[in-house]
Specification:
Low-confidence stretches: none
Strand content: under 5%
Number of domains: 1
Number of helices: 6
Radius of gyration: 19 Å
Oligomer: single chain
Helix content: over 70%
């Protein structure tokens, strides 16, 4: 396996591990808020979108810590606040994917059972959202040393022209 492919595979597996932990946290919170744990509906049963956003915001905090300190630790974070702002922006925008899947299942298909909610939001939606986040993190936030150097060279050239 080539060096680049090995690095990509290592980052992808770490990213998926961190995402798995964050998803588990969000999954438990979401299901507790919407469907409850003790046989009755959860406190946000009538508001599954709000419950999903709240649960996944907590999961996002877990994801940032794991991504920054483990999955992408060999990459330099760019942007304001060491990439935190961009990280939360990418996560918030990519959260629209599972929210859209959940809303479609709930409000178009009129399916409100736990299985339908979880397949829509936590299988289909999060699968698509995870792929979008991995691409965006590598492309815009946690840059490889080579990409970071090219970005710096380009900025220096543009500064010299001005």
């Amino acid at each position: 396996m080539g060096r680049r492919l090995h690095r990509f595979a290592a980052e992808a597996s770490k990213f998926l591990t961190v995402g798995g932990v964050a998803t588990l946290v969000a999954f438990v919170l979401f299901n507790g808020l919407v469907h409850g744990y003790l046989g009755g509906p959860g406190p946000l049963n009538a508001q599954p979108i709000l419950a999903f956003v709240l649960a996944n915001t907590v999961g996002m905090l877990v994801s940032y810590r794991g991504s920054r300190s483990w999955a992408f630790r060999d990459r330099e974070a760019v942007g304001p606040a060491g990439g935190r702002l961009a990280f939360f922006l990418v996560n918030t925008l990519s959260m629209l994917i599972p929210v859209g899947c959940l809303a479609f299942t709930r409000y178009v298909l009129d399916l409100t059972d736990p299985l339908s909610d979880n397949i829509a939001a936590n299988v289909v939606g999060l699968g698509l959202g995870t792929a979008a986040r991995f691409w965006a993190f590598r492309r815009f936030i946690f840059l490889s040393p080579r990409r970071l150097e090219r970005r710096r060279e380009k900025a220096a050239l543009e500064g010299a022209r001005a």
